[in-house]
Amino acid sequence: MLIHALRSEAGIIRQHFPGAERPACGPGIELRQLSTEFDLLRTGMGLTACEQVLSKLSQPGDYERIIHFGVSGSMSEDLEVQDLIQGVEFLAAGRDILKPPAFVHPWGLDIPQVTFFSADAPVQTEDQRQEIKQFPVHAVDMESYAVAAFANQHHLPLLALRCISDRAGESTAADFKRHYTRAAQKLQSFLLDHLLRM
After folding, report:
1. What is the widest separation between alpha-carbon atoms in the chain?
2. In what helix (H) or strand (E) does residue 127 lie, and over which residues does it extend?
3. Helix locations, 7-76, DSSP H
4. Cβ atoms 120, 46 nearer than 8 A
5. Which of 33, 53, 64, 161 is the most exposed place for a label (fewest CB within 10 A)?
6. What is the model's pTM?
7. Phi and psi of 186, rounded to 5°?
8. Is there a contact between 86 and 113 (Cβ–Cβ < 8 Å)?
9. What is the mean pLDDT of the chain?
10. What are the structural domains of the chain?
């Protein structure tokens, strides 16, 4: 299963599978069957929305693995806009660190493995950035922790891939406006190029 938050994070992928069907699901679930191997699920933005959608999936045991993808803000000076990263540890305020089973990609590519922090809202001030920097994290998003918890609960290997779209902090809004589209396209192109080989 492919999981993403924003509709525009998967626009290219949906175009690549024009025959994708929307199987009958419960209310509030936007699920597409891309092929016999892959479903695409949009959760909406934020931890709570993501948790609610995932809790509505009636047959999570039908899936063999999860690929979670989207854009992310950088909390590390070593991660620049347009960098691809892979999450292997997941944090959120007041919650235990998660290390779900890893889906090791077979592509032989050197993608930095990082720790994600899932925030309740976009990080748009330096005070918010400094609060998160108290944790040993490299990047910030708003959904990865929920997906990691779901993967743990159902013993599903997780591959969490993101592309840096901004430096989380005061410049987030300007960075996001300038770099989001390219970052989202880069990640989708990467996924399409390699998913088709699996």
Report:
1. 46
2. helix 126-132
3. 11-16, 47-55
4. yes
5. 64
6. 0.94
7. -60, -45
8. yes
9. 92
10. 2-195 (3.40.50.1580)
Q: How far apart are alpha carbons 66 and 136 in whole angstroms? A: 24
| 41: phi then psi, degrees, rounded to nearest 5 | -120, 130
Low-confidence ranges of the chain (pLDDT < 50): 198
Q: Is 100 helix (H, G, I), strand (E, B) or coil?
A: coil
Judge contact between 128 and 155, C-beta under 8 A.
no
**Two structure tokens written together for 101:** 């089973």
Is residue 193 within 8 A of residue 138, CB to CB? The reply is no
Residues 97, 20: Cα–Cα separation, whole Å: 35
HEC-encoded secondary structure of 99-125: CCCECCCCCCCCCCEEEEEECCCCCCC
Residue-wise pLDDT for 104-160, tens only, equals: 776 667 899 999 999 989 999 999 999 999 999 999 999 999 999 999 999 999 999
Q: How far apart are alpha carbons 195 and 189 in whole angstroms? A: 10
Strand partners, 30: 42
What are the tokens at 177?
């406006």
